[in-house]
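Data deposition worksheet. Section B asks for the primary sequence of the deposited chain exactly as it was used as input, without tags or linkers unless they were present during the calculation. Section C holds the resulting structure in token form. Section D is free text for depositor observations; keep each observation to a single sentence. Incomplete worksheets are returned to the depositor.
Section A, Depositor: J.P.
Section B:
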Amino acid sequence: STIRFADGAICEIRDSAAWAAELAGAGIGAGAVASAERRWPWALAALAGAVLIIAAIYAYAMPWIAGLLAPAIPQAATQSISDAVLKGLDARLLAPSKTSLQRQQEIAARVAALAGAGDSLPPHRLLFRASPTLGANAFALPGGDVVVLDELLALAKRDEDVVAVVAHELGHLRHHHGMRQLLQSAVVSFVVGVYLGDVSTVVAGLTTLLLESRYSREFELEADAYAGRLLLSTPASLEPLIDMLLRLDAAHAKNRAADRGGLFGVGDLLSSHPDTAGRVSALRAMKR
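Section C:
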């Protein structure tokens, strides 16, 4: 045992048991913390308390912190991450789109027309790809890229349906859902990597993380509400978004066993959702 005095002096005791007996004989016992550590009920209670505190931080504090940090992440950093993820997806899961350039431009023009609605559009770039693996999907990357897959265009009955899906993805961009999800999942390594300029360490396992993540119900409803406001502020209606939610849910229900989960947008409109009925009800309530 070692005793340290206020003036910096140190006293080393070889026989700890004898020293403890001397202290006990002098009426000096172990402190409350030391006594509690020797009692299993107290130790277990302390462990349970620590677990509850950590769980509360993850469930409540982390989303709040992520909500504050996400808008402050430099655009150059988010774009760098998005570019790296898109490059990885192009190599692994995505293929060049077979949709004609004319139709791509027509859809992009319809999306741009939403800017005249009551809520402005976040900075974005509309991209088209194909992917039999991901199926009828669309997703947004945090840097502003919104990727629409040919399989989604095939599922849609008209371009208004595609625009409604893109409006939903723009809602995720507006509220920084992708970055918030990423921060909540890997806050420490992400923040350190971004602010130290070592983005490569962040994006190393990012594609896998994004494929395995899903948006929370709160994020989905928030993106739905944003899309709903956009569509209601134009001659369009909410029916295309509602129809696509139901159509996508039915389409992906056939492939639940093979569902890959979320990729920012891939976790919302792109995989089957048990709460689709609730989301549709919320959208229909907006029309009243």
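Section D:
The mean pLDDT is 78.
DSSP finds 13 helices and six strands in the chain.
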